[in-house]
Design goal:
The structure is a homodimer. Chain A is mainly alpha-helical. Chain A has a domain of 105 residues: Winged helix-like DNA-binding domain superfamily/Winged helix DNA-binding domain (Arc Repressor Mutant, subunit A, Orthogonal Bundle), CATH 1.10.10.10. In chain A, strands 1-2 form a two-stranded antiparallel sheet. In chain A, helix 1 runs antiparallel to helix 2. Chain A is globular and about 60 Å long. At the A-B interface, helix 1, helix 2, helix 3, helix 4 and helix 6 of A face helix 1, helix 2, helix 3, helix 4 and helix 6 of B. Chain A binds a DNA duplex through helix 5.
DNA sequence: GGAAGATTGTTACGGCCATAACAGTCTTCT
DNA sequence: AGAAGACTGTTATGGCCGTAACAATCTTCC
């Protein structure tokens, strides 16, 4: 018998306390949001410190590299849209990647305001290696669930994302 | 018929591309991690900008206030454990709360190194009001799922958290 | 008792991110 | 054509966070 981590003990306690409170308190909605954010936070910290930082990347930098790897040359404004980042955050991340020789900016032929970000050869090597490591680590995280359960979980998350409130960017 | 948000279009495309790659690429694990992190990121940004910032709080500050509300006077080291934050982040957040008159530090009677953080009356009012608003907003986010589905989702997330890799703090 | 090690909270530092303001460029509409 | 408005990328500013180092205190073990 193993002891529960402190965050799960707290989560279970908070859920019980909220169950005794009147609306708008909602113990189930709280538990869902709490565990969702807790898992995401632990996963992000784990991937960042264990895989990407030791390679000289940040998680945000890796995610940009990965998008460039799949999509090819892409404008910063499009990277910001699909990444839920601001344009200035993309500017900063691309600066870091460019300093490390992993990506480059090129002027856009069609629009003189625009820029296109492209992966360098070193960037492609870096993203391949980091991606392989991240994929293995994700499998470790999700090993507690069977394949059908993992797909079920992804489906539920996707439905929430599709139905996001109208005023969410 | 409505167009899919850019992040979901990208997510679906990436999943398809990964399905054609050899291991360790794992399209299903990628899709799960991607949608999990995307949803958490959107939810955090939404709660922070829509609810807590307008009230002069940060999301981290609110989460600390909420824990103090449920747990009563608590040591920073314990707040750090259950929040997946570093002790220095707790120090900073408590400084901000203290400046705003929402919480206070008191010396611990038993241990002269230690400090206990307590909610002020203003802090309790603030946490009550912010909590009610956040609960309502969370319900809007999760309205796409039925009650049974929400519990199912929480259960799957909790199982992953319980089985977290051994070397995760 | 007392020394070695562990723990607590804080500080200094650097990194990431969002907001707002800006200049340059494109688009639209008359 | 030309003026008004929209869009793109960058910069400046401020906030949060983690790591590492530190002083003070507690605990352990001889």
């Amino acid at each position: 018998m193993s002891t529960l981590p402190a965050d799960l003990l707290y989560g279970a306690y908070a859920r019980e306390r909220l169950a005794t409170m009147p609306p708008p308190a909602d113990a189930e909605a709280f538990a869902l949001a709490y565990h969702l954010l807790q898992l995401a936070s632990l996963l992000v910290t784990d991937l960042e410190t264990r895989i990407h930082r030791p390679r000289g990347l940040t998680l945000a930098g890796f995610r940009l590299l990965f998008k460039l790897w799949l999509l090819g040359p892409t404008q910063p404004v499009r990277l910001a849209e699909i990444s839920a980042m601001s344009r200035s955050a993309v500017t900063n991340a691309v600066n870091t990647l460019e300093r490390g020789g992993l990506a480059e900016r090129r002027p856009s032929p069609a629009d003189r305001r625009a820029v296109v970000v492209v992966l360098t050869a070193a960037g492609e090597t870096a993203v391949r290696e980091a991606f392989a490591e991240q994929a293995r680590r994700e499998q470790e995280w999700f090993a507690a669930l069977g394949e059908a359960e993992r797909e079920q979980l992804t489906g539920l998350l996707t439905r929430i994302l599709r139905a996001r409130p109208a005023d969410v960017p």
